[in-house]
Amino acid sequence: MSHLHPVPSYELANHPLPTGREEVWRFTPLKRLRGLLDGKPSDARLKWDADVPEGVIVREISADEAAELGETKPTDRPSALAVANGGDAVLVDVPAETELTEPLIVRLSGTNPDDVIWGHIVVRIGRHAKATVVFEHNGSAIYSATTSVVVGEGANLDLASLQLWEDDAVHLGQVGIRVGRDAQVRTFQASLGGDLIRIVENVEYDGPGGDLKMYGLYFADAAQHIEHRLFVDHNQPHTKSNVVYKGGLQGKGAHSVWVGDVLIRKIAEGIETYETNRNLVLTDGCRADSVPNLEIETGEIVGAGHASATGRFDDEQLFYLQSRGITSDEARRLVVHGFFADIVRRIGIPEIEQRLLAAVELELEQNVGAPLVGVA
Amino acid sequence: MATLEVKNLHVSVDIEDGKKEILRGVDLAVKSGETHAIMGPNGSGKSTLAYSIAGHPKYTITGGAVTLDGVDVLSMTVDERARAGLFLAMQYPVEVPGVSVSNFLRTAKTALDGEAPKLRTWVKEVNDAMDKVSMDRDFATRNVNEGFSGGEKKRHEIVQLELLNPKFAILDETDSGLDIDALKVVSEGVNRFRSQGDRAVLLITHYTRILRYIQPDYVHVFVGGRIAEEGGPELAEQLEAEGYDKYVRVSA
After folding, report:
1. Crossing angle of helices A328-344/A350-368, nearest 10°?
2. How many Cβ atoms sit within 10 Å of the Cβ of residue A2?
3. Separation between Cα atoms, residue A107 and residue A88, nearest integer Å
4. pLDDT tens by residue, A167-195
5. Which of A15, A295, B228, B252 could form a disulfide with B223 if both were Cys (CB 3.0 to 4.6 A apart)?
6. Nearest CB to A373: which of B79, B90, B116?
7. Facing residues of A123 across strands?
8. Which residues pair with A230 in a beta bridge?
9. Which of B96, B110, B171 to probe by mutation at the A interface, max A CB count within 10 Å?
10. Which residues of chain A are within 8 Å of residue B53 when distances are taken between CB atoms?
11. For A316, which residue in chain B has the nearest alpha carbon?
12. pLDDT higher for B76 or A351?
């Protein structure tokens, strides 16, 4: 059994303490997890502040109830620990055929950089419901969370998770998504802050016709480790997945990791999948690891592919901009802004798009100076 | 009145096994109000001259000088040269993903003027400039040169010429790949720019066709990395009839 088949289990015994040599841990600096893997119990919680549109129910449920709801199970030790130590879980419930016109926005913030915090969240989107759900992480904490997202038949979900932590935060997150028959799911991950962020997204399908789009944006600064791993399990026929992640790196010791695993099972005839990862390296001393994996058990598919590219600034682009009088710094800023803009524009929530572009600008000020003019 | 002066310019590029000299002592002086055509066969170094004056990092200056009213251009950065009044319309304009034409033009204008253009008049100026080259106004919201046809890219270069209004415009094979309608539109744009009276144009071309629409004051024949012959507009007519053969044979 390859690492493309993570074993879902609540049992800690099934998720031994990693040594760092395991395929799924080999990029992660375990020493910087600040004890999260030890599984020390803790009652600390992130502050939860939510805009809850009418028709959505948010309530606490026990871990047993979460399991009974048929949530996705943990596939690694930190997520199993989050369930075991997290106490009650939070259930975000969008009932069947409920169509939200406003996004559900949850602001999660940590106030103490030394607090170990376990989180357990279940998002349930009923059949034919339509919703946008945003989790926004701020402040500081040593946080491990497991989030299970179960999307019903024909439902339509936009799910965003923003990691806008302070520089000293540690965040291990596992997001399990089950895409219902004919459901449409778009996910969006943005990781900009923190000392170490490692997000693992696992997707499976609950019937044919599911359509998944996964987008991501990350920006690693000096000494920052940002890791995104995803596993799309095409376990049903006639399902689709399209993944686009873009990353920027700057400063000594900035390290980004992107691992995109796609499994096309024998049963999954007629599926279509494509994944892309692009990294823009702004300075010396950065490292971008980019590993797409495709495992194909049937050839009876519409299409499958992947692309990965890591590069520096394109001299021709910079020359073109500078030849119009634009300074070197401003030209770089424009190019980076453009690099991320097409991802950001896919979010579809103007307020969040603006905030993310502003956050990218702020990152850029470190190396290429403040913008000359506002961005249209 | 301003003068762009190129003196005994020698330029090399890096190739796999060392350096290759492309320009071998170019002398040229272009004054405000003048239009100079530089004509020559493929590989003669015409484009290298354009890019060297603009400051492309690929080219190494190994000797000579370029000055603008006596001020050393070669020690300036690419953007400083543009702010000193130079403009290069490129043969292959570059795509810049995610950056809209509108944002690009406004950023360039701001950089050149030292202050942001007034929003209301600026939008009108941009629209007018696009209308003049028969470019759909929707292009303002598209990414710079991304998915543009060859002709659309050249029109976009002329829109920039119009809006940024430099002192010296170098047009590098702006005519190549254009159909006759596009060629007329582009030429009209260059002629509007020239009609201001105190603007200079260095028109680099392989073909005589564009010179029917843009009358040069001087024609320079460029062969083997230097100017082989100079004359007035009649030289273009001679090239039209005889081609570059006799120059190529002499240089070889």
Report:
1. 150
2. 10
3. 18
4. 999 999 999 999 999 999 999 999 999 99
5. B228
6. B116
7. A92, A149
8. A201, A260
9. B96
10. none
11. B94
12. B76
